[in-house]
């Protein structure tokens, strides 16, 4: 019996002025806005699809996944219906809609897809009162570059219609191929539902020595681990890879069922929100702990007794121990990348290894260009994101497996490895303070006045007293980045005060919200003397949501 072709409809709509992607082709908004504003999601999806040239879009393959948060299933249905109507030939979707961000990048690269759509708001809360997001990955498996994001935005401002197949229904739970005949289409539209873990797991097998990690977790000198998936997308990956494949006991993994509201908790792997993991680690029973954010690209590492490894130190320690990873022994190390606010701990390692360091604006898309050109092997950000050129996204589980590989090779505890690193390279004390929900106009004037203050000639070479330390200003600037690959210039990426001992103060506006602004202040102080490595950074670094912001006049010099 012949199937009746599914109709393709053109729906009239009106543009929204607020659909500018915040970086990497992503749009993140309150979930209620997506649900309540007429055509809000279809408008953005149409703008995204239309940003791909028609000749590249017709018949192409794209990958779709989500972190499982509330509204994901409804959104996937709309994405599928619109992809079909817009000429996409095949969609590859994770079973039940679940795919981590690293897995989407992996699949795009493996099958040479034209790109991918990830439904996630990263580490933001879920549920009806939380946030929802749509992120676009391009053909290299990385976030959309700024030129693509700008194109999406320009299309969104004049959009008058979108195309959709509203009668098309996909069974996300059934593995395998599903085909659909569409009106006025010569070839059927195909959807392939794939296991969420398989392709990504196969990639990891080719990067790591799984036998060494398995022996660490199951051998005579095994360590006990505690892994918190925070009820995000990483639950199936943790159970399948760390437990089933590498032998960690099933009770090593907690919060591994993806939930639409992440169990009522914010899926943000830091000391503020991963409190259940922190308390478990403080008990001393476990030698290694880790947590992941909602979509699996960020992570946090804890050692026995809750010993915390900040993200900048983690990046530097990984860099110093790449010889523990078969992938890098085979591929070599060409260079490192870090976002400008990330501490300069990585630079110290790079100097010893005699490899270049690329200092970029915040945003993984800047690393993608470096990796595509063969300049960068390892990169990371202070916001708990680390990755390598095996993908074009930051990769939380990859970073955890690197740490387990280092533990297996060096036969030391997390704390011993970190303290040995400090003894060799010095310690970079590091704090970040977030001043959230600022009125954008107020935030603008704070940054304007601060820039005027620190770039004035009278500010140069001033000294500031902090406790018993005196910090002398060496230089100040508004950071700009010139891409060494294509020469693209990115300006006004944060204000920097750099002191003579390499300590730094950085002020940067975050672009993750569309209504209110976030001012981030980063403080870095370098200490070479091992006898001074046991101090604690200010306790307030654990409280990343502070108010009110400081005024520029609060920078008081030594008289």
Automatic annotation (TrEMBL):
Residues 527-536 have a biased composition (Basic and acidic residues). One of its GO terms (cellular component) is cell-substrate junction. Signal peptide: none annotated. It comes from the Eukaryota. Keywords: Cytoplasm, Phosphoprotein. GO terms for molecular function: phosphoglucomutase activity. One of its GO terms (biological process) is myofibril assembly. InterPro entries: A-D-PHexomutase_a/b/a-I (IPR005844), A-D-PHexomutase_a/b/a-I/II/III (IPR016055), A-D-PHexomutase_a/b/a-II (IPR005845), A-D-PHexomutase_a/b/a-III (IPR005846), A-D-PHexomutase_C_sf (IPR036900), Alpha-D-phosphohexomutase_SF (IPR005841), PGM (IPR045244). It is found in: Cytoplasm. SUPFAM superfamilies: Phosphoglucomutase, C-terminal domain, Phosphoglucomutase, first 3 domains. Residues 23-162, 200-305, 324-425 form the Alpha-D-phosphohexomutase alpha/beta/alpha domain. Residues 527-559 are annotated as: Disordered. Belongs to the phosphohexose mutase family. PANTHER family: PHOSPHOGLUCOMUTASE-LIKE PROTEIN 5, PHOSPHOHEXOMUTASE FAMILY MEMBER. This is Phosphoglucomutase 5. The gene is PGM5.
């Amino acid at each position: 019996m012949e199937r009746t072709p599914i109709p393709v409809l053109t729906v009239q709509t009106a543009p929204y002025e607020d659909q500018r992607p915040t970086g990497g082709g992503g749009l993140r908004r309150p979930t209620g806005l997506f649900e309540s504003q007429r055509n809000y999601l279809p408008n953005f999806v149409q703008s995204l699809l239309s940003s791909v040239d028609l000749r590249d879009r017709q018949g192409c393959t794209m990958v779709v996944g989500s972190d499982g948060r509330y509204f994901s299933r409804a959104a996937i249905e709309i994405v599928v219906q619109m992809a079909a109507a817009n000429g996409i030939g095949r969609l590859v979707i994770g079973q039940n809609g679940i795919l981590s961000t690293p897995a989407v990048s992996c699949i795009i690269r493996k099958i040479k897809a034209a790109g991918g759509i990830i439904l996630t708001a990263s580490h933001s809360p879920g549920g009806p009162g939380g946030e929802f997001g749509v992120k676009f990955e391009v053909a290299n498996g990385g976030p959309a570059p700024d030129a693509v994001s700008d194109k999406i935005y320009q299309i969104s401002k004049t959009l008058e219609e979108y195309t959709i197949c509203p009668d098309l229904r996909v069974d996300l739970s059934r593995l395998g191929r599903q085909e659909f005949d569409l009106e006025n289409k010569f070839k059927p539209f195909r959807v392939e539902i794939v296991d969420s873990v398989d392709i990504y797991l196969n990639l990891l097998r080719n990067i790591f020595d799984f036998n060494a990690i398995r022996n660490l977790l199951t051998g005579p000198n095994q360590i006990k681990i505690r892994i918190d998936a925070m009820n995000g997308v990483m639950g199936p990956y943790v159970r399948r890879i760390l437990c089933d494949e590498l032998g960690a006991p099933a009770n090593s993994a907690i919060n591994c069922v993806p939930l639409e509201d992440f169990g009522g908790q914010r899926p943000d792997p830091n000391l503020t929100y991963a409190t259940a993991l922190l308390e478990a680690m403080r008990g001393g029973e476990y030698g290694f702990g880790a947590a992941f954010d909602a979509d699996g690209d960020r992570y946090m590492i804890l050692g026995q007794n809750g010993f915390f490894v900040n993200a900048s130190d983690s990046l530097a320690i990984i860099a110093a121990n790449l010889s523990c990873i078969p992938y890098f022994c085979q591929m070599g190390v060409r260079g490192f990348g870090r976002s400008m606010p990330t501490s300069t701990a990585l630079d110290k390692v790079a100097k010893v290894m005699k490899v270049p360091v690329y200092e970029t604006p915040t945003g993984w898309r800047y690393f993608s260009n470096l990796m595509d050109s063969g300049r960068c092997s390892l990169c990371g950000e202070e916001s708990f994101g680390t990755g390598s050129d095996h993908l074009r996204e930051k990769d939380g589980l990859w970073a955890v497996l690197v740490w387990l590989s280092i533990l297996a090779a060096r036969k030391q505890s997390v704390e011993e490895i970190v303290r040995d690193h400090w003894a060799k390279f010095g310690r970079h004390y590091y704090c970040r303070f977030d001043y959230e929900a600022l009125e954008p106009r107020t935030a603008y004037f704070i940054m304007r006045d601060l820039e005027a203050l620190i770039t004035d000639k009278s500010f140069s070479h001033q000294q500031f007293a902090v406790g018993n330390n005196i910090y002398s200003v060496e230089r100040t600037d508004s950071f700009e980045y010139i891409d060494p690959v294509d020469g693209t210039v990115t300006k006004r990426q944060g204000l920097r005060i750099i002191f003579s001992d390499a300590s730094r103060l950085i002020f940067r506006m975050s672009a993750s919200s569309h209504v209110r602004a976030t001012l981030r202040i980063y403080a870095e102080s370098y200490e070479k003397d091992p006898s001074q490595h046991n101090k604690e950074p200010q306790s307030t670094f654990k409280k990343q949501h502070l108010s009110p912001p400081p005024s520029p006049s609060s920078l008081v010099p030594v008289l």
